[in-house]
Amino acid sequence: MLEPPVEDRKYSPFDIALVGCGQVAAKHVSALDALGDAFRVIGAVDPNPDALRHTSKALNTPGFETLEALLKEHRPNLVSLATPTGLHPHQAVAAAEAGANVLTEKPLGTCLDTARSMVRRVTDLEQRLFVVKQLRHHPLFLAVRDALKKGRFGRLYTVGLQIFWTRPQAYYDAADWRGTRHLDGGALMNQASHYIDLLNWLFGPVAKVHAMGGALARQIEVEDTAVVSLHWEEGFIGSLHVTMLAYPQNVATNLTVIGERGTVRIGGPLCNHIQAWNFAESAPEDDPIEDVAARVPTALRRGHEEVYRNVCASLQGDEAPVVDGNEGLRSLAIIDAAYRAFETDMAIEVTDAHI
User: Fold this and answer.
1) Whether 153 contacts 260, CB under 8 Å
2) What's the CA gap between 266 and 254, in Å, rounded?
3) How much helix, strand and coil, in percent to the nearest 5, is found in the chain?
4) How far apart are CA 317 and CA 156, in angstroms?
5) DSSP 280
6) Do 209 and 333 contact (CB within 8 A), yes or no?
7) How many of the other CB atoms lie within 10 Å of CB of 294?
8) Per-residue pLDDT reduced to its tens digit, 64-75
9) How far apart are CA 79 and CA 104, in angstroms?
10) C-alpha 341: how far from chain center
11) 242: closest CA among 228, 221, 226, 256?
12) Which of 10, 86, 89, 181 is deepest in the core (most CB within 10 A)?
């Protein structure tokens, strides 16, 4: 029997549990509230009673101190992880072993080998693993990707990405896991992870990196500043410069792309200001590019909502732009290579991260 058209299908809501009630949980709460017809929240998890109480009340759902306690009482279709990065592998596997699909915040883990094992285990259990990559819905990044796909840059020469943000010592002191090697990672692993994903998503596989980094001002176990040289498989080169030491607030996030027939530079606090959009040949999509930039703040506010919407569609069997565990390993492999370059002061090949 033929299936009805997608728009005519009727699905029951997916039972979902939110694990982690810290700072990023607010974005998940907002997204789930906006998509109430698609998800039924059956529980929230956090060992901090105050954070758990706040999120449980916002979601109108029971609270649990641990994921294990929740899984003893419920069998969710989807477990969403908004916990410290180092906890993702264990929690993802525990959820999958209980029969749940998993959506995890970036990155997959603080260790590439452990993350690879996590992806393999969830796959072996025949569950789906999704990764939150909301910047892939950033309107200007999508416009750059479209220009790349159409060959408007011609041969690429170089790419530059600058992330000049601030994270004062008080930020790290506010939670004992922040700035730790095992649970958090540093400026590359935590704050820049989404943008490292963009470098791979937009421009293709990175072959090798050379990097320097360290804790220049913050009292943490990992880097607050890093500079990474990137060499892409296709032959062009680029750089990533990240710091959490800008004073007294985030300064900018800048992306520059230079090719033989085009140059683009976008910047500003949300990477939403067009500083250059120049191509040898004009195209109809160039005229409204400032309107595209104007949509960035709203798109970023709704980024998690878009991720959840696509995860829901994918679980229903529809085509949707989701990021799976294998794809999530790509950016982690670049970060892993950069950290190894810190230690050796040598160019490091990016490991094939796929399971």
Assistant:
1) yes
2) 6
3) 40, 25, 35
4) 37
5) S
6) no
7) 12
8) 999 999 999 999
9) 8
10) 23
11) 226
12) 89
94, 67 Cβ separation under 8 angstroms: yes
Distance CA 116, CA 106 (A): 14
What pLDDT, in 10s, does the model give residues 206-232? 999 999 999 999 999 999 999 999 999
Angle at the Cα of 22 from the Cα atoms of 21 and 25, rounded to 5 degrees: 65
- Helices 112-124 & 325-344, crossing angle to 10 degrees? 160
Burial 255-285 (b: 16+ CB within 10 A, else e): bbbbbeebbbbbbbebbbbbeebebeeeeee
In the block, which residue shows the tokens 């004009």?
282
Residue 271's nearest CA partner among 160, 188, 171 is 160
Specify the amino acid at residue 90.
H
Q: What angle do CA 204, 190, 295 make, to 5 degrees?
A: 65
Q: Give the C-alpha separation, 56 to 171, whole Å.
A: 24
φ/ψ of residue 96, rounded to 5: -65, -40
Contact 264, 184 (CB under 8 A): no
> 225-232 and 206-214: which strand pairing?
antiparallel
Structure-token pair, residue 157? 């020469």
CB 43 within 8 A of CB 17: yes
* Tokens of residue 315, six digits: 């679980």
Instruction: Locate 326 and state its tokens.
Output: 């294998």
Q: In this structure, which long-range contacts are made by residues 3-12, counting pairs with CB atoms below 8 Å and at least 24 apart in sequence?
A: 6/318, 9/316, 11/38, 11/316
* Tokens coding 3: 């299936």
Characterize 99-109 residue by residue with b for buried, 16 or more Cβ atoms within 10 angstroms of its Cβ, and e for exposed: ebbbbbbbbbb
Q: What are phi and psi of 78, to 5 degrees?
A: -145, 130
State the pLDDT confidence band at 351, using cuts at 50, 70 and 90. confident
Segments in 125-224 forming alpha helices (H): 139-149, 169-173, 193-203
Domains defined along the chain, listed by start: 6-134 (3.40.50.720), 136-297+325-349 (3.30.360.10)
Tell me how far CA of residue 216 lies from CA of 213, 245, 300, in angstroms.
8, 9, 30
Check: CB of residue 39 under 8 Å from CB of residue 16. yes
Indicate whether this model's pTM tops 0.85. yes
User: Residue 64 pairs with which residues in a beta bridge?
Assistant: 45
